[in-house]
Amino acid sequence: MVTPQRDRRRERVAVGLATTFAALTIAAIFGLGNVSAGARTDDEAAVSPAQYLSTGAFGAAAGDGALGLRTPYFDPPALADPASPGFTINSGADQPDPFLYQQGGRYYLFTSQDKVPQNVPVRSGTTVGQWGGPTDALPDPPAWATPGVTWAPDVAPFGTHDVLYFTSQLRGVSPSTMCIGDAISTSVEGPYLASPVPFICQQSLGGSIDPRVFVDADGQPSMIWKSDQNAHSSTADTQIYSQPLSADGLHLLGQPTAIFSPDESWQGHIVEAPQLMLVRGSYYLFYSGGWFNQPGYSIGAARCSGPLGPCHDQSSSPLLASNVQGQGPGEESVFANAAGLWLLYTPFSSTLPLPGPPRPVSMAHLGFGPTGPYLAAPLQVSGTG
User: With the CA atoms of 290, 152, 236 and 175 taken in that order, what torsion angle do they form, in degrees rounded to the nearest 10?
Assistant: First the structure.
């Protein structure tokens, strides 16, 4: 249902400031020294930057490679050493649930609030790995949200504004219940103005967490999220839900549909942190499985019939599990630019309720073959040995 309170926010936002998507910066894809490319090919230019940034639709129009790279775009060589899948793009404070957004020549790294004063920490820079200090994308959280408990941010462009979706704990409710909120801004890094009421809150299912926007090839956006049964039960299966979004991203359309639930032993009763992608005509759901504070926490990928599912695992094994870089990797998201597709994640599990080391943000290269996604080798630049 659309509430008057939700609609009033738009009157307080300077409508008319168009969100611009400048050409993707290719000359230094990440500025990490091992990746560079020239201009995109004509086929690649046929895919709008909005499609890349939303990590929604990636089809044949994107071509098979970025000019200047010897590595095909969708199906690069597989990673030779699966024990070392990723590289660190930020460290220091604990930074779970990483999400990377690019607008023009600038990158924005959003993470969860954990032992930091910012409600939604965001760092930005023209080069991945070289960030400025954190600012707060949501300096004034809504009254329904418990202070100091804000997780799993997602940001998506909708016309003249961006929408920040986040998870927070309902204030004054027992047992503790997490719900999804939404906030609007004309600037990627905020500040965002939050709705006074939760966006999604399945209290009968233990709550709702981990929002992520998917944009289909026809431009229709959907919200993907997790029902939080494991918050109140160690034996109830969680579920991943999908529901269409309005064109402005501020309203849900129709009814929610459960599209995925645990179906492999390594997941236990938990699948979470969902992200849906469309690659070469196939839908893939990335997710984390198991308890977030256990070494068995891992990242999986399922194939889906469409945005409303159903989704099923193509393998009985995780896509990314414990390795020499860390025990219990998870809390993933997927980022795409003209050089390739990338998995962002925390390389080792939380130690809660005990204290532990801060978790950095890692990134791994992805490829997509006939059987689905796989961990890919680092990019190589034409003209090098």
Answer: 130
- In this structure, the chain runs to a length of 385
Provide the residue ranges of all domains of the chain, joining segments of one domain with +.
4-14+48-58+79-371
The token pair at 329 is: 């990797």
Average pLDDT, the chain: 83
Q: What is the pLDDT of residues 350-374, one digit of tens each?
A: 888 888 898 999 999 999 999 999 9
Given this model, what pLDDT does residue 64 score?
A: 39
| CB count in 10 Å sphere of residue 66 | 26
Query: The tokens 């998917």 sit on which residue?
Result: 214
CA distance 287 to 112: 17
Task: Say which CATH topology domain 4-14+48-58+79-371 has.
Answer: Tachylectin-2; Chain A (2.115.10)
| Per-residue model confidence (pLDDT) at position 71 | 65
pLDDT digits (tens, 9 = 90+) for 317-329: 999 999 999 999 9
List the beta bridge partners of residue 333.
344
Q: Can you say whether residue 4 is alpha, beta or left, with left for phi > 0 and alpha for psi between -120 and 50 degrees?
A: alpha
Give the angle 106-277-51 at the CA atoms, nearest 5°.
Answer: 40
